[in-house]
Amino acid sequence: MSAAREWVAGVLSGVYEPEPAEGIVEWAERTLKVPATENEEWADRYWSSSVTPYVRHLMAWVKQPGKGEYHVKKSSQVGFTMALLIVICWMIVHRSGQMAYAIDSLKEANNISKTRLKKWILKNELLERMGENEDDLNNLTYYLSGMTVYMIGAHSAGAWANKSLVLCILEELDKHNLIDGEGSTVGLARERLKRPKNAKLITTSTPGGEGDEDNDEINDQDSQITIEHARGSCDVLDLPCPHCETMAPLEWENFRYDTKEFRDLDSTLNLQLVAQFAYFACQNCGGKIEEKHKFEMLQKVEHRSTNPNPAPGVVSLYIWDAYSNFVTFGQLALERISAEGNLIELARFMRGRRAMNFLMKGGGVSDDELLELRKPYRRGTMPACDFLFYAMSVDVQEDGEYFKATKGVYDVHGDFWVVDWDTLITLDEVVEFADVPLEIDGKEVRVQCGLIDEGNGKDTVAVREFCMLDESERWFPVKGRGKTQIDKSITESDHDTQFGNGITFHINDPHHKWSLLQSLRRKHYSEKKQKKIPKTHLPIDVDEDAEFLKELKNEIPLWVKNPYGKGEWKWKKRGTNDWWDTLKYLRAQWEIVSPTIFAEILADPEKKKILEAQLEARRLLERETEAA
Question: Could you tell me the CATH number of the domain that includes residue 138?
Answer without folding.
Answer: 3.40.50.300
